[in-house]
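INFO  loader      accepted 1 record
INFO  loader      residues=64
INFO  predictor   begin
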Amino acid sequence: MQKWIEGTVVDQKRWTETLFTLCVKAEVAGFEAGQFAKLALAVEGEMVARPSTRRRSVRTSSIT
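INFO  predictor   done
INFO  writer      dumping tokens
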């Protein structure tokens, strides 16, 4: 398993009550087809994430 990479949510857009887009700024290499990302929060020193039950879409861009 890969280590966690720290990032910052720089923007969000709510499309519906259950569908949203997050823009995260982090120093990572570009994504390739077939890769996936998982987001988590650090809570009391532990990484907490929801189990992934849905397909997620990832798009990369240069945000400065």
